[in-house]
Amino acid sequence: MILAAFTGLTEHGGVQRYARHAAAVIAMVARQRGEQFHLLTLNDPAGPLEFESAGIRFCATGFARNRTALIRAILTKARETRLLYLNHPNLAPLGLALRALNPAARYVVSTHGFEVWEPLPTMRRFGLRCASKVTATAQFNAAKAVRIQGITSDKVVLIPCALDPEFSGANGAEHRSSDEGKPPMLLTVARLMSAAHGVYKGIDTVIEALPGVLGSHPGLLYVVVGSGDDLPRLQTLANRTGVATSVKFTGAVDSAVLREYLAASDVFVMPSRTEGFGFVFLEAMAFGKPVIGGNHGGTPEIWPDGSAGFLVDYSDLRTLADRLKMLLADSDLRRRMGVEGRRRVAEFFSFDRFRENFAPLFA
After folding, report:
1. Sign of CA dihedral 199, 117, 41, 363
2. In the structure, how many helices (H) and strands (E) does the chain have?
3. Looking at the structure, do residues 13 and 81 belong to the same domain, yes or no?
4. Pairing state between β 267-270 and 247-251
5. Domain identity same for 137 and 193
6. N or C end of the chain: smaller count of CB under 10 Å?
């Protein structure tokens, strides 16, 4: 059988979305082979759970954060398991426990970004090193895992994130241009986590660059979607910079409201200092929006500078302001970059491409 353990499947977030896509592919592959499969999820409510992702239905068993019960369930099925999938390096020691009872079994571990940028605790790092394969969402993260965690490069498989097919259905139909007489709108979607968490999304740099943009576009509105402990600092910065009336913090919103903001925006901007991948860029690109991201981490692997958008160095306020003004002043450029963004999502970051990359792990 194929056995899979996840940190969580129900919550929002890039890791959870990747996990749901992985679970869907595992269910599809197992059914095609006539093979049993069991999906176990540590942090979700206890008991049987039903999911649908990319049109594929599957069931999982939740363990309500009871790690002991999860370990027991894996060990109970160890002798029947030919392959164990673990969706996060924190679960990597479970692969070692499986192999202790069934040396013939293989296990695969997925990595996503910052969790492998610093040395893992000893058992997690050892579990990662002993895996049959380790997936990474970007070459940047793969290189970090090899250099910092000591994984051999031949074990690493690059499998980028994918956009949900339902989200891809936007296909630019909801694209709006500020030429319709409405004030131009910039958009960022991110967790507002303070620097103490090692997260630098660049929202502060956008706020600091706004005075240089508002001179050319006085009606501009910068919308920031997301919540977190950095909100008070960002609000204070907007006031101190004199742009508070041009910045709107919405807090967390549901998917329907997020789609409305994406449709209404003219430019998506998130010039992070370091980004493992940047799933929200795919959502903006699927809506035909030009994107501005940080020229760091895994972001440059999503689009080349000048194609679907621009890449800027973190804290380079002058270049950031220049790129924003360039896009806001040129509707044809926004349209061309939006078309290229949709093309790149369809070609490189669709669920079909994810399935093609992921399914061979379970052959």
Report:
1. positive
2. 13, 14
3. yes
4. unpaired
5. no
6. C
DSSP letter at 226? B
Q: Which residue has the higher pLDDT, 100 or 11?
A: 100
Q: State pLDDT tens for residues 32-78.
A: 999 999 999 999 999 999 999 999 999 999 999 999 999 999 999 99
For residue 103, what is the domain's CATH number?
3.40.50.2000
Range of the domain at 304: 168-348
Q: If you write DSSP's letter for every residue of 50-111 in order, what string do you get?
A: EEEETTEEEEEEE-TT-HHHHHHHHHHTGGG-SEEEESSGGGHHHHHHHHHH-TT-EEEEE-
Enumerate residues 6+ apart whose C-beta is below 8 A from 76. none
75 part of a folded domain: yes
State which of 159, 189, 216 marks the end of a domain: 159
pTM of the model: 0.90
Q: Which of 140, 159, 178 represents a domain boundary (last residue)?
A: 159
Strands (E), 252-323: 267-270, 291-294, 309-312
Q: Give the residue among 169, 190, 172, 173 at the shortest CA–CA distance from 350.
A: 169
Distance CA 38, CA 28 (A): 12
